[in-house]
Backbone:
């Protein structure tokens, strides 16, 4: 039986015909080829700003600073998008390049800026610096009603409130909002509960904006479930990681197909330098070295910082170097081993699809 048709999603001035936002996955996993393909199929394709100076400079064969690289990445994705929507995911934790990432994305014609891994308090003021300020949708990522309330209060002083909110639950890949495994596993933090909290905060503020469900969304039926709960759409990362167009290397994609549920782990001790839980495949060679303290402490990239410093620079008992491991998985750190991040639903993947086939499955499941 044909399932219900998915509604379109409108965020500020951007109309998305399929209410699916492809999650921004760094470093380089949300490639311009992936984002462009998703946008061409009616979803919102999303890039990741992390390490774009290295990634885009390598692709174009010339040295670019971060602002120029962000602009170029958006333009490259736009060229493949058939006029579809392109967003940029910019982590608050990547503090040294945050402003350049925002402004560069806007230079390149980005439709939306999605920002999490911390509360994006400075985002509306940075956006005001750009002539396209009124055109670009601003979408914070939150994991509680309290976080949404804090953002609304702070942003209201800037005269600009969010155009949508992504509510990310504990099943998401990469960095998640919680710092302790017990918190992430607590039933109170199930995505459905978090969505209810955030929707209530939006009502309290009389703010009629789309709320986007993220973390563990896998099927057409899942999308309908969250729309029934009052969401405007969903964000999906891991499913798009397992496509021909993603930036993941062949070994990474093969592990996605082969992995079991027990192979997926929340790294904490050692964990990410930014202090958040970080979901990985246990088989990642870089992660195995981290567990065995086999890698000499080193931070020579400096993208992911906590209070201006990287705790993996001088010691390896509490944190491991995220940047080098992820760069290795896209062949930009040749002397490092690969680090593979996934969402909790990765064990359900049994084949690598084209973006077109995946989007057909998600919007027209039978």
Residues:
């Amino acid at each position: 039986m044909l399932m219900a048709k998915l509604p379109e999603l409108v965020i500020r001035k951007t109309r998305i015909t399929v209410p699916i936002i492809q999650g921004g996955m760094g470093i380089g996993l949300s490639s311009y080829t992936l984002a462009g393909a998703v946008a061409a199929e009616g979803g919102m394709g999303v890039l990741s700003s992390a390490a774009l100076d290295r990634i885009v400079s390598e692709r174009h064969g010339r040295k670019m600073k971060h602002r120029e690289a962000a602009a170029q990445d958006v333009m490259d994705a736009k060229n493949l998008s058939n006029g579809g929507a392109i967003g940029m995911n910019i982590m608050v934790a990547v503090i040294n390049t945050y402003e350049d990432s925002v402004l560069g994305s806007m230079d390149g014609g980005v439709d939306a800026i999605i920002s999490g891994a911390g509360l994006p308090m400075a985002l509306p003021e940075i956006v005001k610096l750009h002539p396209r300020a009124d055109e670009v949708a601003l979408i914070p990522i939150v994991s509680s009603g309290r976080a949404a309330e804090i953002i609304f209060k702070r942003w209201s002083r800037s005269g600009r409130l969010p155009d949508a909110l992504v509510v990310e639950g504990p099943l998401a890949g990469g960095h998640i909002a919680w710092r302790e495994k017990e918190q992430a596993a607590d039933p109170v933090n199930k995505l459905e509960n978090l969505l209810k909290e955030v929707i209530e905060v939006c009502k309290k503020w009389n703010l009629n904006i789309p709320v986007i469900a993220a973390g563990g969304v896998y099927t057409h039926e899942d999308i309908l479930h969250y729309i029934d709960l009052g969401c405007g759409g969903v964000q999906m990362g891991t499913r798009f990681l397992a496509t021909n167009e993603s930036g993941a290397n062949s070994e990474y994609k093969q592990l996605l197909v082969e992995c079991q549920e027990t192979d997926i782990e929340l790294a904490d001790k050692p964990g990410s330098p930014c202090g958040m839980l970080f979901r990985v495949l246990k088989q990642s060679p870089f992660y195995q070295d981290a567990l065995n303290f086999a890698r000499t402490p080193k931070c020579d990239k400096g993208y992911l910082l906590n209070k201006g410093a990287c705790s993996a620079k001088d010691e390896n008992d509490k944190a491991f170097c995220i940047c080098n491991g992820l760069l290795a998985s896209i062949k930009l750190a040749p002397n490092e081993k690969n680090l593979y991040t996934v969402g909790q639903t990765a064990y359900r993947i049994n084949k690598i699809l084209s973006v077109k086939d995946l989007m057909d499955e998600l919007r027209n499941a039978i």
Q: What stands out?
A: The chain has two domains: 15-248+347-363, 250-345. The CA atoms of residues 18 and 258 lie 29 Å apart. Residues 250-345 form one domain.
